[in-house]
Amino acid sequence: MPTSAPVYRPPSMIGLVSATEPAPPVADLPTQDVDRSDPDQRGWLKEAVRKVRAESGRSADTHLLAFPLPEEWGIDLYLKDESTHPTGSLKHRLARSLFLYALCNGWIRPGRPVIEASSGSTALSEAYFAKLIGVPFIAVMPRTTSSEKTRLIEFQGGTCHLVDDPRTVYEVSARLAAESGGHFMDQFTYAERATDWRGNNNIAESVYGQLSRERHPEPAWIVATAGTGGTSATFARYIRYMQYDTRVCVPDPENSCFFEGWTRGDPEATSATGSRIEGIGRPRMEPSFVPGAIDRMMKVPDAASVAAVRTLDRVLGRKAGGSTGTGLWSSLRIVAEMLAAGEQGSVVTLLCDPGERYLDKYYSDVWLAEQGLDIGPYVRTLERFLATGAWTEHR
Ligand SMILES: Cc1ncc(COP(=O)(O)O)c(C=O)c1O
Q1: Looking at residue 393, what is its pLDDT?
Q2: How far apart are CA 227 and CA 119, in angstroms?
Q3: What pTM was estimated for this model as a whole?
Q4: CB-based pocket (< 6 A), ligand 1
Q5: What's 61-87+204-388's CATH class?
Q6: Where do the structural domains in the chain lie, given as residue ranges?
Q7: Which CATH class is domain 92-191?
Q8: Which of 32, 99, 133, 363 has the greatest count of CB atoms below 10 A from its CB?
Q9: 10 Å Cβ neighbour count for 168?
Q10: Which of 90, 149, 331 to mutate for ligand 1's pocket (most ligand atoms within 8 Å of CB)?
């Protein structure tokens, strides 16, 4: 007797539904479904991301400059020259990463402003990217920010909102964002996570690639100052990920709490006075500062930072901002230590931004006198060291 062929049922349906059974009653709880996809918004976003990524394609890598030291010391010092980015500082990389991160998270909307708390360099770079994708930009900065940086932000189409107390930049930015329906970029929170620390041509991968044919291709030390802490975190994580032995030193200026917070292991450390070295030194332990990744810190007197940028100008013919001086002072101190210990190797620090932005500050003797800064003893320490190899910090 012919039998009817069995009805095929996928395994997931066996025991659940029968072709011959009546349909089950409608469930009490319907599926809720909210679709916020917006083709216009997605089209705008794709175009904005394309513009930011295309900008990266047009940018070349920055130079690694050799700081001249006597050949026979067997120690090489380099400065990664971040001043040659289109917006003149290492913050160009960060601003690009922050924009991509915020765009891909759906945080930046057409026509809505981007707001940032900054000591100026990040704001300048972000003003450039905001203009590129066509959204308004507001920089919230301490009133002491150099007038040249304010001018450059306005040149990029940004608006500057200056505050008297540097500690209020975060809350003022959040308030402006809430009032305008805009987005507070918050570099101090997001810098460390917006940058791809494993590589992707980040600053660390770039430096190691550039050192590959040098006599000491794996540096003994990377010296990076901290504003958000993002740059030092990127270096430190990349070094560990690549299993290098390089150590990371973060020099901190006066009027910053990073050094005290790091040495005491105190995440609540604060500083009441704003930093005189623009771009670095913060009044609170910023979320993007990653203490566990840092090997060493130094507290550098502001006069030593200024002395070091003046020395850089004399030796290399290049003016740089104060944070470059803070890093250079610490780097030369480490070179002196290596020399005294008979060690050979290389040290890398950063030329963070150009000194032309600070002619009325670090290059002005009037400003130094107003600030009560005497750079003479520190200049002598540096000059003596470069001439003899002996490092003395005595007055
Ligand atoms: C001039 C300058 N140097 C150094 C830094 C420190 O970089 P980071 O924020 O990655 O710690 C900054 C940060 O704003 C800066 O503006």
Answers
A1: 84
A2: 9
A3: 0.91
A4: 89-91, 119, 121-122, 191, 225-231, 279-280, 321, 323, 352-353
A5: alpha beta
A6: 61-87+204-388, 92-191
A7: alpha beta
A8: 99
A9: 15
A10: 90
